[in-house]
Amino acid sequence: MKWEKILVRYGELSTKGKNKKQFITHLKNNIKFSFNDIPNVKVNAERDRMFLTTTNDEEMQQLVKRLPKIFGIQSFSPVASCSQDLDDIKATALKIMDGLEYEGKTFRVTVKRTDKRFPMDTYEMQSYIASYVLQQCPGLIVQMKKPEIDLRIEVLNDAVYMMAEVIPGAAGMPLGSNGRSLLMLSGGIDSPVAGYMLMKRGVRIDAIHFHSPPFTSERSKEKVMDLANRLSHFGATVRLHVIPFTDIQQSIQAQIPENVSMTTTRRMMMKISDLVREEIGALGIVTGESLGQVASQTLESLTAINAVTSTPIFRPLISMDKLDIIDIAQEIDTYETSILPYEDCCTIFMPSCPKTKPKLEKVEFYESFKDFDELIKEAVENREVMSFPIKKTNEFENLL
Amino acid sequence: MIYFDNSATTKAHSEIINTFVAVNEKFWANPASIHEFGHHTNELLETAREQIAEILQTPSDKVYFTSGGTESNNLAIFGLANKYKYRGNHVLISAIEHPSVLEAGKRLSTQGFKVEYIPVNKDGVISLEEVEKLLRDDTVLVSVMHVNNETGAIQPIKELSSIVRGNSRALIHIDAVQSFGKMKVNFDELDVDAITISSHKIHGLKGSGLLALKKFIEVEPILFGGGQELGIRSGTTPVPLAVSTAKAVRMASQNIEDHVEKLQKMTNDLASFLQTFSIVKLISPENRAPHILTFSVRKLKGEVLINALQKEGVLVSTSSACSSRQIKTSHVLKAMHIEDDYIKGVIRLSLSTMNTLDEIQQFKKVFRHVMNVIKGE
């Protein structure tokens, strides 16, 4: 079937007053970014909807396939076109219906007749097309109010436009419309989900990861790279900052009593993150912490860790259950990678019984015997920065 | 050697062999393994699947790698009939199908299905009027090949599907083993529910092929085990073969117009040459696939001609390679009611784009010589 264009309905951004134009511009740019391999995509943005067109059908299929990942889109519909010939209209209607799982669904036909020369009037045409479709597609139930399938037909001067399928989009806000934040990416299940949730609210993400060779393997770093790459599939470049963390961790081992070493480790990570955040001009720090999940995520621990900075720290998972987090991880395709069993820097020096209620003054007192700032500066300077997406398909290109 | 038996199998393209070797060297992990290596290999497998899905215009979770045409046909016949048996137990199969469809149908008829056969006309083309007559409310599956392997006759799939869609809820399966790469085969072009493709007929590797389904269509598996291939085809997916298949599918569907033009030119030339012999009769109809030309020599056994041509370095076959070792007459030719004088002497020339115009000229010389020796013509 020939798809003429795609109608895109905006997500939440359509409730924004004067900023709306900015949001739409962001969305437009994101669509162009996502489809930069299809140079012919034309975006025609209107106040409350957007139309996408391409030059051929193959590209259209690509759009349909990839649009559901772009934030800021509530839903979209491929629009078919045909001539004003009744047989043609019937055939097109049937083809559209064939693409849907219609059995047992409620159904109606809505006609808008812009071309008043068209021989049938609106009501005539509605019942004519509806009765034809009902004959051909058994199992449809007619319902005028809020049907599941609304076959919309628009008779224009030179053509007839038709659509029925409403494909849900990713909702949320266009990426970039809410600035940039730094995500602490450990390699576990939670942190990619936290990143995704912020991205969905329009926040661009840089990720930071702490690497302690030789205690943590190259594989665990690759795992985090894979996660960063997966996050970049949601329509924007994701930079990953890998911090050499071995020296700091060893100093902590030497200096800090075992039961609060975990708290200090987190505080150092937070300090480093804050420095990197400042350098890249991000406004907040995102973590995957969920209240009470582990010793470092009790209210007392969070307070002690948080004390090193006044930068806003976003914890979108703070009140979520682990199982709900896993659901999202599976949905965004990071779960399988996250559960790969490599040691990371949080697990290797894990004390046998870390304090769940560390006292801030005590932690600060222990830390005062060592000048960590120098080490921190060094770590930030020696970090490795990578940019995603990496185009893996290139590697396969010669094979396929 | 002049190889005119490309409908039996084709020579694997060197680039495809390279792919096979490279994947075996670099991505030999089990794609179901959880480690990065397995993950990476799986990514390659899924990219291959997506590539095929895109060419066939269907979602990528509807493409299943199999061991080839026979398995794909079996999967389609048993899998669709059983999955949708709540719609009925009546199955229609054309009389000229490949044995992998016919025998599967026969088996199905012992499992509570009523299987009927669509007759063909003298050109070897299914009769659409008969289809309309045979269709019933409880018809669940119609299976017709896109291009017949023995005669090259193109079957009217578009017309067939509009009749089937208009008169029943039956699913449509096409065996596109001979048509893929020579004609437009995808779910957008042809309104069908399942398509069988074999790799080794399009310069891919033996032992690989695929079954593709239209969006929303499902099959029941016929192989059970670890649930690979989205649960449809258990058994560790042979990634090197799958990737080679994806490459063969891509290469066959690229520049299809050029391929067709070249093949058409060669077989047209052969057809007009053969028609200069009074005892030669063309079996292939006017509307044939561009790469197949089947003819028969009056009162001559096909085998004699094959051996004589082979001596001169020209490899051809009787109407199909599968049946060429059997003594019984081809079911396709029987269904076409070919006259007795001609039914034994049937020869199939099947070309590929690897053949050259030069080879056509050489063939003519050899054929003239052989006919002179055998028949004194």
From TrEMBL, chain A:
ATP binds at residues 184-185, 209-210, 266, 288, 297. InterPro entries: Rossmann-like_a/b/a_fold, ThiI_AANH, ThiI_fer, ThiI_N, THUMP_dom, THUMP_ThiI, tRNA_STrfase, tRNA_sulfurtransferase_ThiI. GO terms for cellular component: cytosol. Catalyzes the ATP-dependent transfer of a sulfur to tRNA to produce 4-thiouridine in position 8 of tRNAs, which functions as a near-UV photosensor. Also catalyzes the transfer of sulfur to the sulfur carrier protein ThiS, forming ThiS-thiocarboxylate. This is a step in the synthesis of thiazole, in the thiamine biosynthesis pathway. The sulfur is donated as persulfide by IscS. Residues 61-166 form the THUMP domain. It comes from Psychrobacillus insolitus. Belongs to the ThiI family. The gene is thiI. Gene3D superfamilies: 3.30.2130.30, HUPs. It catalyses: [ThiI sulfur-carrier protein]-S-sulfanyl-L-cysteine + a uridine in tRNA + 2 reduced [2Fe-2S]-[ferredoxin] + ATP + H(+) = [ThiI sulfur-carrier protein]-L-cysteine + a 4-thiouridine in tRNA + 2 oxidized [2Fe-2S]-[ferredoxin] + AMP + diphosphate; [ThiS sulfur-carrier protein]-C-terminal Gly-Gly-AMP + S-sulfanyl-L-cysteinyl-[cysteine desulfurase] + AH2 = [ThiS sulfur-carrier protein]-C-terminal-Gly-aminoethanethioate + L-cysteinyl-[cysteine desulfurase] + A + AMP + 2 H(+). It is an enzyme of class 2 (transferase). It holds the Pfam family THUMP. SMART domains: THUMP. One of its GO terms (molecular function) is CCA tRNA nucleotidyltransferase activity. This is Probable tRNA sulfurtransferase. Signal peptide: none annotated. It is found in: Cytoplasm.
UniProtKB/TrEMBL annotation, chain B:
It comes from the Bacteria. GO terms for molecular function: cysteine desulfurase activity; iron-sulfur cluster binding; metal ion binding. Pfam families: Aminotran_5 (PF00266). The keyword Protein transport does not apply. Its cofactor is pyridoxal 5'-phosphate. PROSITE patterns: AA_TRANSFER_CLASS_5. Keywords: Iron, Iron-sulfur, Metal-binding, Pyridoxal phosphate. Residues 2-363 form the Aminotransferase class V domain. InterPro entries: Aminotrans_V_dom, Aminotrans_V_PyrdxlP_BS, Cysteine_dSase, PyrdxlP-dep_Trfase, PyrdxlP-dep_Trfase_major, PyrdxlP-dep_Trfase_small. The keyword Iron-sulfur applies. Belongs to the class-V pyridoxal-phosphate-dependent aminotransferase family. NifS/IscS subfamily. This is Cysteine desulfurase. It comes from Psychrobacillus insolitus.
